[in-house]
Design goal:
It is a single chain. By secondary structure, this protein is of the alpha/beta class. The chain has eight helices and ten strands. The strands form three sheets. Strands 3-4-5-6 form a four-stranded parallel β-sheet. Helix 1 (15-24) packs across helix 4 and helix 4 crosses helix 5. The longest helix is centred in the middle third of the chain and has 17 residues, at 149-165. Residues 76-188 form the Polysaccharide pyruvyl transferase domain.
């Protein structure tokens, strides 16, 4: 069985491709839908994850399952979610649960697909500073400009492999911190409050939910979040999921 998932054009952030890689390894087969550009086929379930921004096209397709979404506060997203045949939203973070509750939409906190990666127990090497001001280590930037989708996937896999085997990663990026927690990689998450950006703090509320500590090396068992995400998909899609390993 095939499921539709997002692909991204002019996203500027490789973290979007990282989310798609995390999600597609949980599904038997996938086809891609351009975010903000394509209208998904109605006869194939569309698994929507990530940030629902301001520029989504008009969507009347009821075959959309929202699984690990952060909802930006606009009424287009309300209409899109309200049209779904699925009775429940899988919220990525507490901020989205609150957004749904304010609109009488049933929602369950399931976290992000990037928390579903398997832990890594092999040898570790490399210290990385990913969009992290003042941090030690090899500098990496997640701003990518206008990159073709295949190139995004290739780069995202390369970066994930580095984070998976790293000794330490310091980052200000959500979709570096979450995969590192899943991999069991020690991570220093720079406190999002330092930017004073309310929207950023809402998106990062998932870190508070998983018990993250900021500005200090941190490792956390997130296996319960992995199972929470997978169980949500299994319950609504009626399939048995055997995650493919990331190697």
């Amino acid at each position: 069985m095939t499921f539709q998932v997002h692909r991204y054009r002019k996203t500027w952030n490789i973290g979007d491709a990282i989310q798609t890689i995390a999600l597609e390894r949980l599904l038997p087969a996938v086809s891609y839908v351009w975010r903000d550009l394509d209208t998904p086929a109605e006869d194939i379930p569309f698994i929507v994850n990530g940030w629902l921004g301001n520029n989504q096209p008009p969507v009347t397709n009821p075959n959309c399952l929202f699984a690990g979404v952060y909802v930006h506060s606009n009424e287009h997203n309300y209409r899109w979610i309200g049209n779904s045949r699925f009775s429940e939203v899988g919220a990525r973070d507490p901020a989205t649960v609150m957004w749904c509750a304010d609109r009488k939409i049933r929602a369950t906190l399931i976290g992000c697909a990037t928390l579903s990666f398997d832990p890594y127990t092999g040898p570790r090497s490399g210290i990385y500073a990913v969009d992290a001001k003042g941090a030690e280590g090899t500098a990496i930037c997640h701003d990518i400009g206008d990159m073709e989708w295949d190139a995004q996937l290739s780069l995202a896999r390369e970066l994930l492999q580095r984070y998976r085997c790293a000794e330490l990663v310091t980052t200000s990026r959500l979709h570096v911190a979450l995969p590192c927690l899943a991999f069991g990689t020690p991570v220093i998450i720079q406190d999002p409050m330092r930017w004073g950006n309310r929207e950023r703090n809402r998106r990062f509320s998932i870190l508070d939910a998983v018990g993250a500590r900021y500005d200090t090396p941190f490792v956390q068992d997130v296996s319960a979040w992995r199972q929470r995400y997978i169980s949500f998909l299994e319950r609504h899609l009626g399939i048995r999921i055997t995650p493919r390993p990331f190697v």
